[in-house]
Write a structure and sequence with these properties.
This protein is an alpha/beta fold and 442 residues long. Helices cover 30% and strands 27% of the residues. The chain has 3 domains: 83 residues, 2-Layer Sandwich (Alpha-Beta Plaits); 273 residues, Aminopeptidase (3-Layer(aba) Sandwich); 77 residues, Immunoglobulin-like (Sandwich). The strands form 4 sheets. An 8-stranded mixed sheet has the order 5-6-8-7-9-12-10-11, sandwiched between helices. Strand 5 and strand 6 form a beta hairpin. Helix 5 runs parallel beside helix 6, helix 6 packs across helix 14 and helix 10 packs antiparallel against helix 14. 44% of the residues are buried. The structure holds zinc ion. The site of zinc ion has 3 residues, from loops.
């Protein structure tokens, strides 16, 4: 019944343009619906015809192909066109080439700890750049791995500018500032300021084909496996990159409101590490004055699905398929603020950004002496409570997982042997282990 109804509604709203459900929406209209809840267009959402984002008490964003304006007009629903932004606001921002130059300059300033590389090309051929930051940056050391990715929504630009500012600050202060130096020496940090450079150049949410990259990752509610087939090339690049690393903690930056959003996005059940993830989210929100004092979100954080459901987002994919705990950071009400305000945004976020990175040290891992080993590890917490924390795959002879404070037993089953090894590990947020909390196996 429901799909019938949705279909007929679609026919009215979109004429012959009806898109099959689950196909990627080619975004043509970017609207802000004023003073309504998404219930008013639930049928279109359920049919996969529109995407809703950033729901607040003021209204919500609506992304769609053509025809939805007409539909809203027919229902007398008030909206405005988000694409109508003054050219002046865009003019001062650096281009992709200028961003690249800034990153090259940061690397040149401190090449011992900065290494810039590309993980692929956008549709229009722009490099998808990542800065690796660590001591002995040319070597792949056994250290906890952390990542920031920004601006997969091309028009949500604040995070791109802030991550570049952070790279510049680290390049400047490494070796001089104790906290920054300790962090860099003991961590492998990867920062990708711009996952969607074409979208940023076009000042739009989607990539050059108009596809929303944060709806284009494998999704537990519809995909059995994490495969590249049929995904946008920007997503493929990030997925391949993730497969080559051992990320344990990540965040991705967006704009449109101010909040730290934690998994799950795609389903309503609580994440098995829910309390710990709330704690991690607060390590960001607490140090950001505007976020922590939010009137919309208690303490500046929210569960993803409780806010609104996202399917095909990066955050859930990252944990479900790669054991990489990830949160989504919304860092400015204006997606594209005046460029003169960017230093202020960086000032109010930089302590949070550094503090959140440091949290990757709240974890424990192990490493085999020989390369190329794969297998599984079961994790049991023995104190403060006795609890099975699940079984995880490892590859490349290493494993590391962020965990709440406590004592754990890891039972390690390497694939080529029948014997299991057990190790005892302790996680304590107040201890920064040199190069991370790893047990070296025999
Ligand atoms: Zn976004």
């Amino acid at each position: 019944m429901k799909s019938q109804f949705a279909k007929s509604l679609l026919a009215v709203a979109l004429g012959a343009l009806a898109v099959p459900a689950l196909a990627a929406i080619q975004i043509k209209e970017e609207l802000y619906v004023v003073g309504q809840s998404p219930e008013v267009i639930k049928e279109l959402v359920d049919a996969g015809t529109v995407e809703v984002d950033h729901v607040t008490s003021e209204g919500f964003e609506l992304y769609s192909g053509t025809g939805v304006k007409q539909y809203l007009d027919s229902k007398n629903i008030v909206y405005f066109d988000m694409q109508e932004v003054s050219e002046k606001v865009f003019a001062d921002y650096p281009t992709h080439a200028e961003i690249t130059r800034k990153l090259v300059a940061a690397q040149a300033k401190n090449p011992r700890v900065m290494k810039l590389f590309s993980i692929g090309k956008s549709i229009k051929g722009k490099d998808l750049l990542v800065m690796k930051i660590s001591d002995n940056v040319e070597a792949d050391e056994i250290e906890p791995e952390f990542k920031y990715i920004s601006s997969m929504h091309g028009d949500e630009i604040t995070g791109r500018e802030m991550t570049v500012a952070m790279i510049e600050e680290i390049a400047e202060k490494y070796g001089k500032d104790r906290a920054i130096t300790d962090l860099v020496n003991n961590t492998e940090i990867f920062i990708m300021p711009s996952m969607n450079p074409d979208g940023s150049e076009l000042r739009q949410r989607g990539n050059a084909r108009g596809v929303d990259l944060n709806r284009n990752f494998p999704d537990i509610t519809r995909d059995r496996e994490s495969t590249l087939a049929g995904r946008e090339i920007e997503n493929q690049a990030v997925m391949k990159f993730q497969g080559t690393r051992q990320f344990a903690l990540s965040a991705n930056f967006h704009g449109g409101t101010i909040v730290a959003n934690y998994p799950w996005d795609s389903k309503y059940d609580l994440h098995p590490l829910n309390d710990f993830i709330i704690d991690l989210s607060l390590t960001y929100a607490d140090l950001n004055p505007e976020m922590s004092r939010s009137r919309e979100f208690e303490r500046g954080i929210t569960n993803g699905a409780a806010w609104y459901v996202v399917r095909g987002g990066m955050q859930d994919w990252s944990y479900l398929w790669h054991n990489d705990l990830q949160i989504t950071l919304e860092v400015s009400h204006d997606k594209w603020p005046n460029y003169a305000d960017i230093p202020g945004f960086y000032r109010s976020n930089r302590n949070s950004m550094f503090n959140y990175m440091l949290q990757v040290h709240r974890g424990a891992g192990f490493v085999f002496p020989r390369p190329g080993l794969k297998g599984t590890v079961n994790i049991k917490q023995v104190s403060p409570a006795s609890k099975d924390m699940g079984t995880y795959a490892f590859n490349e002879s290493q494993f590391y997982k962020v965990l709440p404070d406590g004592d754990y037993v890891y039972t390690i089953q390497e694939r080529s042997t029948s014997t299991k090894q057990q190790i005892n590990v302790r996680v304590d947020r107040n201890t920064l282990h040199p190069n991370g909390n790893y047990v070296r196996l025999n």
